[in-house]
Amino acid sequence: MKTSSTKEKILKVSTILFSELGYKGASVRKIASKVGIRESAIYNHYKNKEEIFLEVAKEIFSSPFSLKTEEIKALALRGKPFLNKFVLQYKMLTFDKNNENMFRLLMIELLQNKSLREQFMSQFHDKNIKILSEGFFIMMQNSLVYSSDPIIMAYEFLSTLFYIRLQVTLMHFDALPTNSLATQFEKHVEFFWESIRIDTI
Prior knowledge:
With 201 residues, the protein is an all-alpha fold. It has 2 domains: 2-54, Homeodomain-like (Arc Repressor Mutant, subunit A), CATH 1.10.10; 62-196, Tetracycline Repressor, domain 2 (Orthogonal Bundle), CATH 1.10.357. The chain has helices spanning 2-25, 28-35, 39-42, 49-61, 69-76, 80-94, 97-109, 114-141, 150-173, 184-196. Helix 6 (80-94) packs parallel to helix 9 and helix 9 packs antiparallel against helix 10. The relative contact order is 0.11. The model has no long low-confidence stretch (mean pLDDT 87).
């Protein structure tokens, strides 16, 4: 139990330090000091700083859809609520301060770290596209939306969300207000749903 809680504390502290100091600035020594353990003790849990960073990144890149497969299918059968739920969780990640700081750092590090790029593709891109395309496929099977390529539909839906998230991050970086962007997520759902749904009237 103690090992688990120490590992969790290392990740929690690392997330804060990486977001505040960047990848280079957050040394293993600083992480250990903040956790309250010896630097050598970190290596009982992680091989090096990169492994800690990739573990933190996994949390940031994880799909916002923290639902079980059955719940996702049930939502998809209702159509628009599936999109609303996905966007609500995506929006919460976007405006979470720690998450946003790490997202900004990850955008920088993606260009320099191959392992991170591979993780981004598997943990963020592939998982989200899979979840969305499966949802759209269920909607198509049940005549809720027009028949099309569910993967392309997933790309179309996700790309706008990612762009809004990037825009929020960039504006916060320059200390600009993002109030006008707060409603863009919901507006995107409305616009997208109206363009794909089958009018039953």
